[in-house]
Write a structure and sequence with these properties.
- Helices cover 19% and strands 40% of the residues.
- The protein has 300 residues and is of the alpha+beta class.
- The protein has one domain: 2,3-Dihydroxybiphenyl 1,2-Dioxygenase, domain 1 (Roll), CATH 3.10.180.
- Strand 11 and strand 12 form a beta hairpin.
- The longest helix has 12 residues.
């Protein structure tokens, strides 16, 4: 199932999302979406793919590595020798870009040789009562089989990250508590075309809409992978390894998170002669999260 644009297809977020809870006192001041970190067998080829297929630019990160710049945040890559697991058994489902004219964008992608896991599909009725022919999505088969969504939106930028959770409402509240976002949530179970898409939650961090659906979606649509599985695998080592959230002061942020009971999996470290300071925490559903000091720039 695709993520829905909060602006173009407001029916999905306004009708099913019953409440927009107020952001709790921001535990970590100045938190921003910094990067999406992928594992790749060929980072150079992956960078070429993302910058040629989508609205993204080639960049450098901290003088250490080539990267992809996506308007306000980065996509970073770690070289791996064997293809990273990409089956949907971690909390990360997919990430994606918008398309103002989905039919035209889809055809251009086909003409350029893009491979799709799911062809263009009309889901205009997902929000209830909408005319068909107004909202579409498709899944691109990305490098190392990363699942990338294109969906109808009022923009063509990197726009969303779609997660799965054992408890979407609680997961949304966790991000709100620790990073000060304002989640929209709906605790009601909801079905669409034979799969469960509620309870659900979402929040926006900078220009990235993070959407959270129930794990039951994967247990139904990807039943082979979940047949003998009870819980998520960690994102670590998978095609989407982790997300990065930037803060003004790493030491203060980690101290606050530790006080709140967040698991610190990797204590603060520095790299690039002290230019980068970072640590790792574990988020809901075994999401690996890097906390990094200093906010994203195109060429750091």
């Amino acid at each position: 199932m695709p993520a829905m644009s909060r602006t173009r297809c407001s029916a999905f977020w306004i009708v099913p999302m019953l409440s927009a809870t107020s952001a709790l006192a921001q535990t970590v001041p100045g938190a921003h979406f910094h990067h999406l970190h992928l594992n790749a067998t060929d980072p150079k080829a992956a960078i070429e793919f993302y910058t040629s297929k989508f609205d993204a630019e080639k960049a450098r990160f901290a003088g250490l590595m080539d990267a992809v710049w996506t308007q306000k945040s980065s996509i970073l890559f770690s070289k791996v020798n064997t293809p990273p697991p990409s089956d949907i058994v971690s909390t990360v489902w997919h990430f994606g870009w918008g398309a103002e004219d989905m039919k035209e964008t889809y055809q251009k992608q086909l003409d350029s040789g893009t491979k799709f896991q799911t062809p263009i599909t009309d889901i205009s009725d997902i929000g209830g009562g909408a005319q068909m022919g107004r909202f579409f999505y498709a899944y691109v088969d990305g490098p190392d089989h990363a699942l990338i969504e294109l969906n109808t939106a009022n923009h063509h930028r990197f726009g969303h990250l779609h997660l799965l959770s054992e408890d979407p409402v609680a997961a949304g509240a966790w991000y709100a508590k620790h990073f000060g976002q304002t989640p929209r949530s709906n605790p009601q179970a909801r079905m669409y075309r034979g799969v469960q898409i509620g309870p659900s939650a979402s929040f926006v961090m900078d220009n990235v809409n993070v959407i959270i659906y129930p794990v039951e979606y994967a247990r139904t649509s990807k039943w082979e992978a979940w047949e003998n599985r009870k819980t998520f695998e960690s994102t670590k080592g998978r095609v989407v390894d982790h997300i990065g959230i930037s803060v003004d002061n790493l030491d203060d942020a980690i101290a606050r998170l530790r006080k709140e009971g967040v698991e610190i999996t990797d204590e603060p470290k520095s790299a690039a002669g002290g230019k980068i300071k970072y640590a790792f925490i574990q988020g809901p559903d075994k999401m690996r999260i890097e906390i990094i000091e200093g906010h994203a720039q195109k060429d750091q």
